[in-house]
UniProtKB/TrEMBL annotation:
It comes from Snuella sedimenti. The keyword Magnesium applies. This is Molybdopterin molybdenumtransferase. One of its GO terms (biological process) is Mo-molybdopterin cofactor biosynthetic process. Keywords: Magnesium, Metal-binding, Molybdenum, Molybdenum cofactor biosynthesis, Transferase.
Amino acid sequence: MIAVKKALEIVKSKTTSLGEKTTKPVEKSNTYRLCEDVFSPINMPPFRQSAMDGYAINLHDNLTYKLIGEVKAGDTIAPTLKQGEAVRIFTGAPVPNTANAVIMQEKVTVNGNGLTIEAQPSLEHNIRPLGEQVKKGDLALKRGTKLTPAAIGYLSALGIKEVSVLKKPSIAILTTGNELIAPGQPLSHGKIYESNSSMLLSALYGLKFYDVSTHKIEDDYNNTFSKLKELIEQNDLVIITGGISVGDYDFVGTALKSLNVEQCFYKVKQKPGKPLFFGKKDNTSVFALPGNPAAALTCFYVYVYTALQRITGEQITELPRIKVKSLSEFKKQGDRAQFLKAIYQNDGVSILEGQSSAMLQTFAVSNALVYIPEDLFHVKINDFVEVILLPV
């Protein structure tokens, strides 16, 4: 049995970026990282553009101008202005090449076909120059950039439809247990509804991992062996829940050993989630989580999350951790580190009742985990504690 800190160090050292490229449509590339520099195929903006609603003018020495027409966004034909002439113009519209300033409409008095401006503007006033954001052929986004909604909008504005990005991992979730049945089926005595697969699938989707499959097997060694062999061969990451303890019907550990999966660690000095397994087979990472739902989700956020960030090339690989005052008193039993379900708000954290590894009711309203290290046994109100902020 190893300490939490050591287990995290092993996960980080044993997981690396896939380094594989794939092509994604720009609109479906959110949270992916570019694996190639992107150069702009156009000037942005592609023409001199009005920065506001007003009047485009060809400057002269007088404050009065003759109004000769109008230019709106999307117009492709621009009027020619002589000195002292103006056109009505709208935000985003192309500024005629013969105009050299735009006056906002609030600073103009219009009388029929004549207009008077309050003061002489400077050249190119309120005009966005050609290529102000980026010029054709210039670097638009560099390799390694993580694509956000703003980046996706930017690339789309440049007319780019596809990008080369780092591949995200293919992930399989395998749940084990004779007692498990699917929600919606009649609940007979001795059976429980299976929740871990939907819970973990939702967590992965929330983190923008969509190449995920779910599988279920009963407690049988041959089925466990063959299904694990298949999933490990076909995926970059395999997450198993249940069957990793030492009961007579826990076959996962034996099957992993028979498949020559390298055991990086098994059992962590923590609560919940002591019977946690992490291993490697070639380039595939394997996590066997406890079957108890709250323990499985805790291990996911602490360890699997870290592995996923490493696999996708992120620099920050753990969920945010902060030190805040505890609004609750807590006395720990035993010498294992603990992850306690909690609510963080207003710079304080409340440790909740119902910390059983089998209970999700408390986890369902939590937004944080309070980490209690091995050598801390008593938390008093207003003591500072370490808090792991969960994804929202």
